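One-letter codes give the sequence; the fold follows as tokens. Both lines appear below.
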Amino acid sequence: MYGKELIIDLHKCNSKKFTRKEIERYFIELCELIDMEREDLHWWDYEGDPEGYASAPTHLKGISAVQFISTSNIVIHTLDDLGQVYINIFSCKEFNEMQVLVFSEKYFEGKGVTCQTVPRI
């Protein structure tokens, strides 16, 4: 096996956690927890564009971010109006999926409705 991808969908989250500051803190704490080395962090959101945010459909209102790690990446998408977070972690370095799920639920104050691991071969 080359690595794995963990896919988590969290619902009923605290949308006050859906800020750049909180999401960056999530990445920092998560990478410490699973012993991953953080690299570049990239954002896509409506920061500085309140008109764009106001007119965006519900499924686009939120933050998307990619936290590159030395062994691949962590991607997050938030949906502000729905209180949902979608997380993908892809790494060729081993990590504990349940540890990530429990940490993510606690951090975003939500409940995992989907959690699956896809082996990458």
Q: What stands out?
A: Helices lie at 20-33, 50-55, 97-108. The beta strands are 3-11, 38-44, 64-69, 72-79, 84-91, 111-120. The domain at 3-110 is CATH 3.60.90.10 (S-adenosylmethionine decarboxylase).
